[in-house]
Design goal:
single chain, about 475 residues, alpha/beta, 8-stranded mixed beta sheet, 4-stranded parallel beta sheet, about 35% helix, globular, binds 6-O-phosphono-beta-D-fructofuranose
Length: about 475
Amino acid sequence: MKRIGILTAGGDTPALNAAIHGAVVRANQLRIEIYGLIKGFNCLLNPRVPHVHLNPLFQEIPELDPTKGGTLIGSSRDYIDPDKKAELDLISSRMSKLGIEGLIAIGGDGTLNALQPLAERLPTVLAPKTIDNDLGLNYPSEPDEWIRVKDPNSSHGYTYERTPSNAAFDLNQIVNYATPGYATAVLVTAQGVERIRTTAESHRRIAIVEVMGRHSGYIALGTAYGQPDIILIPEHPLDMGLIVERVKHLYALQKNVVIVCGEGVVDEHGNELGAESTSSDPAGNVALTGAAEALRGKIVNELGDRYFQLYRRGSSAREAIFTRKVGHTQRGGRPILFDRFHAALLGAKAVDLLAEGRNNAVSVLQYNAQKGFHVEGYDANRFRDRWGLIHARQMHPSFYDPQLMKPSKIGIDYLLPIFTDAIGHDDAEHMRQTLFDPGNLAQPYHSINTDVHKRIHYLEADGREPQD
Ligand code: F6P
């Protein structure tokens, strides 16, 4: 293999540049050229195929900084429609005109679904990333548990449901233990909880902090490091009676409560509290918003103003309970050591898999007590259900204690290997040296996009102003 392409797809995560960097370093060693395809799958749909040579003369370009968040080659939520055969033909011919013999996509479950139609025309490998930590399997047989049910209201004519598991759960069996981006997102949410606590404490308020993760509660679970009082996750329906009882107990004791709520939490009927909006993601992923506000409404109704007047003289339930979304800061900024290091290994492994001829594979991050973290290759088909669809991984329900509303013992065991040494000395030092640099006040922000734009090449020069 002489030349490969690499793209980043879906929502950005902190360790994308680190994964690209790992791939480029490995490609240099193997004397493989590597082209960065601009703006994810959008690049393949564009006849001009904007691209950047990431390792001219087998040296990585200086703009590729593994410690920077975001992605220097851009990302999008554009995907390829497997039914559009003519479009797929065009993509193959564009790739072959560019001399690209294999493709690495850095992404999550949506990206892996989108790679499938391409894998029949060009060797493809996925290097995982997602702050949601939902690309993976709790155990290898998990995809077999999905069944599909006819549903005329669904866009594809079917909805997918889980049947009960007959696998004994074991942390050592997890496929892709953690995804790059997850640890940095949890750093942000745990710090957010620590910071909001002081306001809740000082003003005797109840804070509900909404964190991302879609239908998976990993980010909410990891936010336990910030010591919230209650954690609510999508995998266990809310028990409002228990929540209100715990809130009252804690409020009487400490006069403040901090609740962390995953954006995908559901009520006792399985209905999401937040609103859903659809995306073009082929995994059927949706954007969720408003869970914390809906939960606030429920707690306000249950407690009523009188309850707060007893403790806070003159205040109403609406004043006492407030919500904050951590939002996209979870996805942004400098990746911490755990994410950088493992993203780089996964990017490098993706190059190895292509070079070894492992088409339609995924580089995965495995963990066991004997070997610690290590990377392996895994066939993409083993992530698929019997109809070929990849489902976002939900957190194993045993990670959560629904009575305590906190991580269970096994949940803690799951988190420890990821987070114990996740922050590097340089992460703390970086903040000390850069945040209050006087130059930041005087100089405007310089975007990586400005530098990379100067390096973009196009497949077809048609005299138009370049549009990346
Ligand atoms: O999948 C990552 C994620 O950040 C989810 O946690 C969240 O629901 C979604 O993306 C938000 O998407 P967008 O950035 O398109 O609003």
